[in-house]
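Contributing new records

If you add data, match the layout below exactly. Sequence lines come first and carry their own label; structure lines follow with theirs. Keep one chain per record. Anything else will be rejected by the validation script.
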Amino acid sequence: MTINKVDWLVIDWGTTNFRAFALTEDGSLVAKIERSLGLLQVENGQFAATLQMILQQWLNDYKHLPIYMAGMVGSAQGWINVPYVDAPVSLSQLAHGTYHLMLPWGAPAYIVPGVRYQIEPNRYDVMRGEEVQLFGLQTKLSRQEFCAALPGTHSKHATMRNGYLERFQTFMTGELFSVLSKHSILGKALPQQIPSPEAFVKGLEESGGSDFTSTLFSARTHRLFSHVEPVHIYDYLSGLLIGQELKQSHEQHLYLVGGEALCRRYVEACEYLSASSEQIDGDEVFLIGMLEIKKVMNCENNV
């Protein structure tokens, strides 16, 4: 790591993975650490000690560096349960809700709050981490109005309007795929899977109905009656789940924020459903978003 350039650190700490970024003052990436050490693996609430252990190679020289964190680290299952801010929310309102703490080695740390959206009375949706990416995307695009989808374990579809994160909706697409393929009759005793664009499209075609739990069982019957080969069931199931998600969107253009492989699948689905899309690197807009939050906080502190 080019140590003399590093000005601050960013942490994306989720339930299953940990990522740290060392950045220059203007947000340029100098170094990165990734570990399969999520919040759920931290025993007895030893978050500070775990963070210090992971970052030891950096902290030897830069214990004073401020650390900015986002994601599930600020949840009830994380380090500090930082209260949600309510949508619609602006960048400055999000930054204002940031929680400040001092780390045992004397460095200041900040945890960005998540966002809560009231769908209807007594029914809410929430996000932690994606709000940073959305405001980063806003800065990258220099646009105040757009719609974005963030594929993942819990996919998010969000609308930005007039510089505000106006509303969003969560789809449990990734988690459902994992549960159904690993722990249900649909994935039981399957052979090694082989990619099949045809099976994926078949899933897209058959998705979207109000009887979706019934449609899911087709992953079983198509296999029984040779409509989908056993080696292609995962792709058929993927098409069903992604198609069901995207058919609820009704947007004609989506920015797809996330990793290359998963977003590519969504691009293919959008093309089939006659919707346009553009892939955006999730890490890039996450770091842009964190920089924008840091700028707002620094301005407020200097007033």
